[in-house]
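Annual report, structural modelling task.

Input specification for the zinc ion complex:
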Amino acid sequence: MKSVSEPESSPSGRTAKPNGVSNSSSDEIPRREFLRRGIGATTAVAALGGFLPATASAAEPRPTGKMIGMQIGAVSLVDEGVGQVLDLLHERAAVDTIFLTTFTYGRGLGGRQIPGQPFPDHGKQESDEKTFHGGNYATPHAEFYQNTVLKQTRAPDHGDLDIVAAVLPEARKRAMKLFCSIEDVFRSDIPGVKEVAEVDLQGRRTNTLCLFHPDVRTFWTGLSADLCKSYDIDGILFFNERNGPLLNALGASHAQSIASSRVTCFCEHHQKAARVVGINFERAREGYTKLDGFVQAALKDQRPSDGYFVEFWRLLVEYPEIIAWDRLFDEGKHQVLAEVNTTVKSIRANLQVGFHIEHVNSFNPIFRATRRYDELVKKADFLKVVVYNNCGGERYANFIKNVGSTVFRDVPKDELLRFNNHLLNYGNEAGLDGLATTGLSPDYVARETKRALDGVQGKCRILPGIDIGIPTGKNSRKSTPDDTYAATAAALKAGAQGIILSRKYSEMRLANLDAAGRAAREFNK
Ligand SMILES: [Zn+2]
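The model returned the following structure:
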């Protein structure tokens, strides 16, 4: 009998990767646990009463409508009650899949509203600035962390609460799927972090983890295995928004800072990986030191005699190691994605793996060139492609200002924006002065969704991330219910297999959830 907990196959009919083998012994633990909690298939069917359409039963495939996902952190479920929140999400926003923040030390996915921003119209109206810590909100089982120094990551925020154990049975009662979101955001005071931290251009230890360090590798595969073996979840959504040294040197994202002397990673593990593929470490370091000099001179308005762009391009020509070292960073990041995917598939072939594709991919053509959708499909069942259009205006404007202050400093910024719009196939978006207050349009959502769908050629599902209430500056665009409706409808009409409401429920207003639900239900009709 088909259990309600089984993920549906992808539209391409592909349910498992070639490396996906079913492991019956590892399967036993969660199934037993699942049954012990009284949420076996029969119980679940009974519990579904009134929730599924009268014609559907748990033994039949789920309705073929688009997946409507919600990103949510533990604190919201603690504050407002697990059952109450799941009911609310289903009733108001038509949510059928929970992306539960299970591992992060970051506030983008975890915690209440970030400090300084207004609270939404639900949940505790009190900042958790002093109490938010982060970590693993499930129970880390020691056997999965034997080969890493990163052993103590249990989030202390909610005492002994295991958020996955608390939400899973309630999600099943409502025929909802549950994915664990895990994010590569750490803090420096966690035991082991200093030992596996990256080393920057000037030889300083940083607070970020080296993706070539063996202990970091075994941490991510250990965490993924722990979650997939210890709980009967539907899969993992992995977040890693970290950029390589080239983009960080130029500040070529929406991040405000340009930190060309702090770029990473130049540690012994990166040097070893470089030797294997024949990249000269000393030349790379020399190239990045010159790039740092170029960036710092540009910020002081010291124009090279041949102009900023020519000087930058000359650096790349004379030091091809600059690009090679940037690619090496990406290689480490993508090897981690591949290892997580292989690990998860070896536990239960029908577990699904998804990756979050960061915002910079949609407005930086240099970054875009490093992300091949036809390569990503080999590592993932679905991609959460960020198409946050409201905060996108502010972020895109920041990107233009950043690249316009170094590489493209000779180009007036409003002309640079128009030029970049052409490179990216953006339509009629606002000019630089109005971009932050106007935001990007639903047409941007549709175009980026379509581009991703064209890229993956049906081999992987595309679930665009829809911006609801992502914090922006005081005078920048705030998402109205009409914005949410338009963005949701645009993504679904463009052909996406579903959407993921982002970034976290604790920053969303209820009227926006209603609008997302209305767009989803109208589409699914
Ligand atoms: Zn390293």
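The radius of gyration is 23 Å.
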